[in-house]
Amino acid sequence: MLKSKHLIGLEHFPTSDLNKIIDTSFKFKDILKTEDRKAILLKGKTIVNMFFENSTRTKISFSLAEKRLGADSINFSASTSSVKKGETLKDTVQNIESMKIDGAVIRHGDPGSALKLTEYIDGSVINAGDGSHEHPTQAILDMVTLKEKFGKINGLKIGIIGDILNSRVARSDIFALKKLGAEIVVCGPSTLLPSDAKKLGINITYNLNEVLKWCDAVIALRIQLERMHLGRIPSKREYHSEFGLTFERISKLKKDIVIMHPGPMNRGVEIDSKVADSDNAVILDQVLNGVASRMSILYLLLGEGGMK
Amino acid sequence: MIPSKSTRKVLLKSGRIIDPFSKKTFIGDILIENGKIAKIGEKIQSKGKDFNIVDCKGLIVTHGFCDIHAHFREPGREDKETLESGSYAALGGGFTQVCTMANTDPTIDSPEHIYYVVSKSSKLPIDIFPIGAVSKGLKGEDLTEMLLMQKNGAIAFSDDGMPIQNAQFMKLALTYAKMLNVPIMNHAEDIFLRNNGVMNASSTSNNLGLKGNTSLAEAVMVYRDLLLAQSLSSKLHLLHISTKETVELLKKFKNKNSPITAEVSPHHLFFIDEDVNKFDTMIKVAPPVRGKDDRKALIEGIKSGLIDCIATDHAPHTIEDKETTFNDAEFGMIGLESCFGAVNKVLVKENGMSLKSLIEKLTVNPRKVMSLEQNLFSIGCKAQITVLNPNEKWTFKNEHILSKSSNSPFLGKELIGRVKYVVSKNQFFSL
To answer: Cβ contact (<8 Å) for A231 and B148?
Structure first.
């Protein structure tokens, strides 16, 4: 049983719920490995996927998870809907709600939009990324990947590299890793790091080589190239040279570290192709774990395993 | 060019040695072998014929001066100054290290440009450290590749000449430079308050009918920069401060641990706005020379240590740039060769500052701002030495200028204190 009805963010999410979701994910992963790949556990449940912002991985991953669970899902994307005609979030959602749905997955550009949604609908809300706030399902799949690789998360040393300030993935990963007892160092240009690292309980450094020497696994974040024009980073070249997971850096290490990236990658900027495609990289494992994790999340929130 | 000899074996004899690092003063000798400090002490023996023995009796022997603010105009305006001609101008003023500003043409705003200046300077008789631009093209919009520029030899970052108007950009620049632990050196003048002023806003500018530049143009931006640097704990260096308001702000913000440093230029200590009374374009400079009270506050500021160092803002211009109307003339003046004679006269001879203290403002203090080696009289250190006569009165003339340009308001002025010899980069120079 979960204590939570929604998955909005991990900052205030109960650790027991988080652990339960992670553990259940492995069961779904086993199912995904069978020939049938299905577990009809959400038969008759209706889920709406509301994507107000572009997405490839997350959208497909949720759709697939819903199909594997036998749920009825409908997709909604802002670019082809009445949002374009000026309809407010509230009206859009309440109209969808009146069509009787059990759960909603929302991706939106504004922080707080997932939480707002819980006021408008009765079903469970799952945040698939709200602006620079949180991306809890990505963090959960990252935790599943780490646990799969190391057998545990407690005591792991994790480096997170890149735009920590604006990244919802970084924020959710930090909350999850802290709850599960990992040590975290974040690294990136000073203009993209939070100034209140102490409050977050994390360490900050500008020296990537030090982080790589120290950590068991490293999560490279996508660098949003539009940030360059806002004066926060001067060039791709400088970013790659100082904060890129380059082949040279990784091959100099006297140990193996696990390399993760939430995608989409800017190859040649935050990560070299040779590194992304290396044996150390678990980037494609993350994708498969994403389906298993989302099956686990949907099942536990909407199905039998959920809150009564 | 200045006549030079090798420094295979040079003995500076019987000078008054002032070591601004250890803060010791004593009469003694310095032996230089193969360009390095070999021995410092009393009555060092000189055996053999190949010694260059220099009698320094009655002279001061101290560290080579360091100027953290000069414009050498290369690349782009080699007719005004080159890295080489600037080096000789520096030696003429007793400077063995100079940091050059980025507002050349093209701007020094990439690692490749830094590399150009560093490699072109490597064989010159002084150390040249390029200061990189903070923003691409000095536009105040996009950060330069500071990390890569530092790796190529950039010592600090400045858009000098172009004040950074956008406070958010200044904040980002200070934040980014924090990674490098180097100062952002801002030319603090609010361009809107400056209002196209060509001299200090005062009764003199009124009488002359020239547009005034209010001291608030500097103070307002200095206040902004101090607030930002303090809140971010980022290194900030205030360039060529000129007003009493800025000195007051420094009092308010500066303490032992604050990452804030400031410089004052010789011309702001020497001249006041009333000296512009004959539309003398040589005194046209940005920020302008200010009023009597401002000059007094600057003198007190440098004496008390509130202002860290003296920097020349050496800014060469052609004759035609200055032989025109006051409005049309370029801003800036050369300052390396006349520096010591001017500041020694004003500060030591007229305002009671100790010579030792003045030397600190020209040696250890500027090096500290730039994190350069300060313990220059340690054995084995590459010799950077300036020998000077602090009491010699002389009139500054064209013949004393080694720069390619001669735009100096000090021409014809009596100065006190003169550099006699300089040891720099394996060479002994006799001025």
So the answer is: no
Chain B's closest residue to A204, CA to CA, is: B179
The CATH number for A109's domain is 3.40.50.1370
- Number of domains within chain A: 2
B313 included as an active-site residue: yes
For residue A169, the distance in angstroms to the closest alpha carbon of chain B comes to: 23
The reply to whether residue B142 touches residue A229, judged by beta carbons under 8 angstroms, is: yes
Asked if B142's CB is within 8 angstroms of A234's CB, the reply is yes
Q: Are residues A144 and A268 in the same domain?
A: yes
Instruction: Using CB atoms within 10 Å of the CB of residue A80, give its burial: 0 to 12 exposed, 13 to 18 middle, 19+ buried.
Output: exposed
Contact B370, B156 (CB under 8 A): yes
Give residue-wise pLDDT tens across range A120-146.
888 999 999 999 999 999 999 999 999
Does residue A146 sit in the same domain as residue A249?
yes
Q: CB distance B143–A242 less than 8 Å?
A: no
pLDDT at A306 over 90: no
Per-position DSSP letters for B187-241, written without gaps between them: ----HHHHTT--EESSHHHHHHTPPEE-HHHHHHHHHHHHHHHHHHT--EEE-S-
Domain regions of chain B by residue span? 4-61+380-430, 64-369
Partner-chain contact A191 B145, CB within 8 Å = no
Whether residue A274 is found in the same domain as residue A144: yes
Domain, as residue range, for A127: 15-135+287-302
* Separation in Å, CA of B114 to nearest CA in chain A: 15
Q: Are residues A235 and A168 in the same domain?
A: yes
How far is A70 from A67, CA to CA, in rounded Å?
5
Q: Does residue B138 contact residue B112 with C-beta atoms inside 8 Å?
A: no
Q: Find chain A residues with C-beta within 8 A of B169's C-beta.
A: 231
Nearest chain B alpha carbon to A242: B147
Q: Do A237 and B145 touch (CB under 8 A)?
A: yes
Q: Which pLDDT value is given to residue A308?
A: 45
Q: How far is B180 from chain A (nearest CA, A)?
A: 9
B contact test, residue of A166, A226, A227, A230 with most B CBs within 10 A:
A230
Q: Do A171 and A49 meet the contact criterion of CB atoms below 8 Å apart?
A: no
Q: What is B4-61+380-430's CATH topology?
A: Urease, subunit C; domain 1 (2.30.40)
Tens of pLDDT, residues B285-307: 999 999 999 999 999 999 999 99
Residue of A186, A228, A235, A239 to mutate when probing chain B, most B C-beta within 10 A: A235
Please report residues of A whose CB lies closer than 8 A to that of B168: 231
Q: Is A82 on the interface with B (CB under 8 A)?
A: no
Same domain, A32 and A120: yes
Rounded CA separation B251/B241 (Å): 13
Identify whether residues A67 and A146 lie together within a single domain.
no
Taking CA atoms, B182 is separated from A194, A209, A243, B107, B237, in Å, by 21, 21, 19, 19, 9
Spell out the CATH class of B64-369: alpha beta
Q: How far is CA B322 from CA B64, B213, B408, in A?
A: 31, 19, 10
The complex's ipTM? 0.88
Element containing residue A125 per DSSP (H, E): strand A124-130
Same domain (yes/no): A149, A265? yes
Tell me the per-residue pLDDT of B323-342, one tens digit each, with 9 for 90 and over.
999 999 999 999 999 999 99
With respect to residue A7, please indicate whether it lies within any of the assigned structural domains: no
Distances (CA, A) of A86 to A89, A92, B303, B369: 9, 10, 66, 57
Contacts of A191 in chain B (CB under 8 A): 143, 172, 175-176
Under 8 Å between Cβ of A68 and A91: no
B147 contacts in chain A (CB < 8 Å): 238, 241-242
B176 touches A at CB < 8 Å: yes
